[in-house]
Design a protein that fits this description.
The chain has 303 residues and is of the alpha+beta class. It has 12 helices and 11 strands. The relative contact order is 0.11.
Length: 303
């Protein structure tokens, strides 16, 4: 019998490049704060496997794009899809992973790790205030929240000040970070996990899309299938899946194309037209954007 592989604890190192800017504890030396990160992957990246962080609460704030997360909660895996302006909280010790079967799509994310075991000396606050804030964060009743542009600006300013490595700027950045955390406690809920939030009408549309990827899929027809006006359908679909209908269709077709590339010798043009793309050039453009490579390179590298 094969032994099941257990999630591991991950500790990330300092990194500073075009895609990942990560300031670690050994650099900023702020009690209560671990990694402070700005992620801007230029193309699709491999998913991060299921892992956990001891005593660490993670705050993932999506600035642009769409970010997939999976959390192991009470014996079940819940899927969260966060889009621009949404915040996902991962509590200490929780098993979680980033991305789905096709990896992680391009997005922009600000992320902070808070060490809740350091409540007595938390982010420069006095012990009483530190314990109170740390306690309220670690026992927050919600995990998927909606931030305002002002909230995002606070967190981005905090990171930019930390990034200078100047002690005076860091002190100012810390105040911006603390202000963001207090505002986080009052943020409204975003949508529920995809596994439980999608209504019957939207699930019916999603099933129809996957069963008819080779056929024309006009949004008006999908809206009619769901029983909504076109504008209402677009709003409802994005609220429940985290993606626009057009992006969802494109992603589904790319996944089908990847399978065809690996399991057949059909030409790129043939695969593109068979999956409803208007031209092979447009198909290749979208494929590269979502996977980080061309269809031909994907076939060569993964066969």
């Amino acid at each position: 019998m094969q032994k099941r592989k257990m999630p591991m604890e991950i500790v990330d190192d300092f990194r500073w490049d075009e895609r990942v800017k990560r300031i670690t504890r050994d650099v900023h030396r702020v009690s209560g704060l671990m990694n402070f990160t700005h992620l801007r992957p230029l193309a699709s990246e491999p998913a991060i496997p299921m892992h956990y962080h001891r005593d660490i609460m993670e705050i993932h704030c999506v600035v642009k794009g769409c970010r997939h997360n999976r959390l192991f909660i009470r014996g079940d895996v819940a899927e969260y899809v966060s889009t621009g302006g949404e915040v996902l909280l991962v509590f200490p010790g929780e098993y979680h992973a980033t991305g789905n079967e096709s990896g992680q799509a391009p997005c922009e994310v600000l992320a902070a790790q808070l060490n809740v075991a350091e409540a007595e000396d938390f982010l420069g606050l006095n012990p009483e205030k530190g314990r109170a804030l740390c306690g309220r964060l670690s026992t927050h009743g919600a995990r998927h929240l909606r931030a305002t542009p002002e909230d995002l600006a606070l967190l981005k300013r905090a990171f930019d000040l930390f990034a200078t490595r100047d002690v005076r700027d860091q002190d100012e950045g810390l105040m911006h970070l603390v202000c963001f955390l207090y505002r986080l406690l009052k943020m409204p809920l975003a949508q529920l996990p995809l596994s439980s939030a999608s209504s019957h009408s939207i699930r019916r549309v999603m099933t129809h899309i996957h069963e008819n990827l080779s056929e024309p899929l006009d949004l008006a027809g999908l809206a009619s299938l769901a029983g909504y006006s076109l504008s209402r359908f677009k709003t409802k679909f994005r609220a429940e899946t985290g993606q626009t209908p057009a992006f969802y269709i494109a992603t589904a077709r790319i996944e089908q194309a990847k399978q065809a590339l690996l399991e057949s010798d059909r030409s790129i043009t043939d695969i593109a037209y068979s999956l409803g793309w208007s031209s092979s050039n447009y198909f290749c453009t979208v494929f590269r954007k979502l996977t980080g490579t061309s269809p031909l390179q994907y076939r060569k590298q993964n066969r």
